[in-house]
Amino acid sequence: MVVRALECLHTDPAAPWTVDTLARQVNASRATLAARFRTSVGEPPMTYLTRWRLTLAGDLLHTPSNTVAGVAHSVGYNNAYAFSTAFKRQVGTTPTEYRHRRPVLAP
């Protein structure tokens, strides 16, 4: 069940997931999924999803042609402001600052 839930989150991180929709996807109750997920992964499903989305966003910000708004949308945020707020809370810097500080790798 937890593996299937992780597969769902990784396959479509931008989907409007809730514990309820995720539980329905893996044919489990919300309470059962939440408890087993936390026990197996070490954090609640939505906390994991937020961290996963922001990890993906950090990778996408490395590509200069990706806009902050585009990255926000691609990882499941409806607007750049909400994304920037979550990113700064998690990473400690704004997406734009993160992009400028991160070294660009040679192709």
Would you write up a description of this structure?
The chain is an all-alpha fold. It has helices at 2-11, 19-25, 30-41, 45-61, 68-74, 80-91, 95-101. Helix 2 (19-25) packs across helix 3 and helix 5 (68-74) packs across helix 6 (80-91). The longest helix has 17 residues, at 45-61. The radius of gyration is 15 Å and the shape is elongated. The mean pLDDT is 93.
Biggest pleated-sheet summary: none
Q: How many helical elements? A: 7
Task: Indicate the overall shape.
Answer: elongated
Query: What string, H for helix and E for strand, traces the elements in order?
Result: HHHHHHH
Helix content: 55-70%
Report the radius of gyration as a whole number of Å. 15 Å
Task: Specify the structural class.
Answer: mainly alpha
Low-pLDDT segments: none
Q: For the record, give the distance between the C-alpha atoms at the N and C termini, rounded to a whole number.
A: 39 Å
Which percent range describes the beta-strand content?
A: under 5%
In round numbers, the mean pLDDT is 93
Overall strand count: 0
